[in-house]
Amino acid sequence: MRYSQITFILLCFYASSSFGLEIISSSETQKLQEIEQKYNIDSLLISANDKLSTHKKKESDYHALSVEIKSKQTEYEHLVSKLPTRVLSRANLDSFYKELETLVLKVDQLETKYDIDGKSLKREYKSIMAEYDIINSTRTNKDEQLAALKSEITKRVIADVSKPDTVQSVDLDGSTLCSKFQSINDCLKDSENYIVTNTIKTDPFLNERSVLLSYDVVDASMNMSGNLNYKIKMAFKPSYNSKIDSLINEQLGLKSAMITLVSNVAADWFIDGVKIGTGRELFHEVPLGQHGILASYHSEDKSSVEFIQGNGVFSYNFNSNSHNSDMVTLPDNEHKKQTMKMKPKQPSLVNNQANATVNKPKKTLQDKGYEYFMGIEPTTTEQNKSFDSTSSEKL
User: Which residue windows does the record flag with biased composition (Polar residues) (predicted)?
Assistant: First the structure.
């Protein structure tokens, strides 16, 4: 009797390479550690990031100073506009002149401070950017050394896999679920192609062009439920491929990652001292390694130094309630102007006259004689007579 075959299910798959092929050798690992130590930028990056954060707060204070100067200048103009009236009235001129003098001196003091602080901020920013230039130069030198090391590793790996006697041996322990009516040999035969394919996928030294040199079942056992456990020894001819290149890049830190920057407000974002944009959510690609991230919103900053090992999300939230209003108090005259703009529009003369006609008793021609002096032409004979008599009386 023949029983229908049930497709096997792979339950466990573990492979180990028994040959001495290495992605990075011990001597190359030592060189990598030496490069990392020589071009370590952690302390430089932390220092520069902290200075940039402090600088952003000073910039906010500098902007507040400019707003105060404009307010005082407007106050001065308002006070000067009152000068003719106060001089003519001769009321408390001494106190008025004193107030004017105090305001002039205050404006001059603020403008002097604004000029000094502005120059100081420029010098400070230039100094911070110089530190970031050193960091970027150090990072560039490090990348050059890593690229040179990668070249050495690549040449060595290619030479290793290209030797005629180089064989990639794989010892595989695994289990699969077969039909309980199948024999062990039939189940192993059905799963052979799948086992070989997955071994090639998981081993960095193998690809679809790799040649299978040997495939030996060392041990196999199956229980009554159809669970098959096996040990298989395989041998392949290895070759250099893109998986090896990716692993070298990853271990040397030569890959980049896409990071997501998230905030609850539209913050300004800086990476390594360079502004990359403004918004609640930004995406930016950075090389793997240490990076300084800073988010700035109004006078508040949040920053950190992060070791980027792959794609990730970094969140910096702010208290947005404290930044809802940036209004500057207007002087009295400006406040009145704004108030006047807010008043409802007065009814037009036509509407007034129409309302007057409806709400008031009708005037006689005698009562309306004055209207002709306002440029209203008489339209009837009665209006002419009334106008002439009214004019005579006024003369």
Answer: 378-395
Is the entire prediction scored with pTM above 0.70? Answer: no
User: What is the 3-state secondary structure of 103-120?
Assistant: HHHHHHHHHHHHHHHHHH
pLDDT at 348: 36
Residue for token pair 């056992």: 221
| Cα-to-chain-centroid distance, residue 116 | 32
237 within 8 A of 168, measured Cβ to Cβ: yes
The 3-state secondary structure of 292-336 reads: EEEEEECCEEEEEEEEECCCEEEECCCCHHHHCCCCCCCCHHHHH
Please report, for residues 21, 70, 334, 345, 351, the alpha-carbon distance to residue 341 in angstroms, rounded to integers and kept in the order given. Answer: 83, 22, 11, 9, 21
- Write the pLDDT tens digit of every residue in 170-185: 999 988 888 878 889 9
Higher pLDDT, 302 or 379: 302
Q: Which pLDDT score is estimated for 321?
A: 66
Rounded-to-integer distance, Cα 317 and Cα 284, Å: 18
Mean per-residue pLDDT for 233-252?
Answer: 91
Angle made by CA atoms 215, 216, 222, in degrees to the nearest 5:
120
- The listed range with the strongest mean pLDDT (14-23, 306-315, 366-375) is 306-315
Print the SS3 string covering the chain.
Answer: CCCCCCCCEEEEEEEEECCCCCCCCHHHHHHHHHHHHHCCCHHHHHHHHHHHHHHHHHHHHHHHHHHHHHHHHHHHHHHHHCHHHHHHHCCCHHHHHHHHHHHHHHHHHHHHHHHHHHHHHHHHHHHHHHHHHHHHHHHHHHHHHHHHHHHHHHHHHHHHHHCCCCCEEEEEEEEEECCCCCCHHHHHHHHHHHHHHHHHHHCCCCCCCCEEEEEEEEEEEECCCCEEEEEEEEEEECCCCHHHHHHHHHHHCCCEEEEEEEEEEEEEEEECCEEEEEEEEEEEEEECEEEEEEEEECCEEEEEEEEECCCEEEECCCCHHHHCCCCCCCCHHHHHHHHHHHCCCCCCHHHHHHHHHHHCCCCCCCCCHHHHHHCCCCCCHHHHHHHHHHHHHHC
